[in-house]
Amino acid sequence: MGKDSFLDTNIIFSYSNYNEQSKEVAKKCYFYIINKKSKFIVCGAVLDELERIRKKRARIHIEVTKKIENPEYSLEESFLISKRDIPFAKQLYEKFKSYNSKEISNFFKLDRKHSEVKVDKFLHTIVDEKVIPLEQININLVSKIHDIIPNHADCKILASAIQLQGVRAVFLFVTADGKDLDPNGYEYLKEQFEIDYPREKYKFPELHNLMFID
What we know:
There is one protein chain. The protein is an alpha/beta fold. The chain has one domain. It has 8 helices and 5 strands. It has helices at residues 9-17, 24-34, 44-69, 86-96, 101-126, 139-146, 152-165, 183-196, and strands spanning 5-7, 40-43, 129-131, 172-175, 206-209. The chain has a 5-stranded parallel beta sheet. Helix 1 crosses helix 2 (24-34) and helix 3 packs antiparallel against helix 5. The model has no long low-confidence stretch (mean pLDDT 96).
């Protein structure tokens, strides 16, 4: 057994949605999980984000189905999806706009059900440890990370990993985030913490970013 793996949300979500047409990084996430070589750890912030993603995806599917039914329907004016999710909703619409809305609605439901079943199975039969419930996250630490990383959900997950690392042997922080948690960004974050908070002596887990690993 190698070092324990503290899993980011994107690893689990990619695993649950993987198929033969998936992108290479999703394939890496899928095979990282099915070829499990160490203990898998998830935190409360990841569980919370998985639930929020589930609800968000259902809302996007509802709105895309509405637009397929009525091409005049405006996704931009939707109250169900955020502005940040509109580009993805538009991509889905372009992909499926020539199909029957009822067929697409059923397809989306099956797609969500398949993903949710895989997430549930993963959480109940593959995960070894669930740590740091939401109410136990160090909000001060989240704020410090947020000064450098803009995504608040990422900050809560990383804060949880740092909290756990403070009382554990070194483990892997496993992600597929190419934006905020790329190797250079992670090193910068660690360096800034050493400069700004030398007394706290924060211990960081070892980054294992599948997007940058062959």
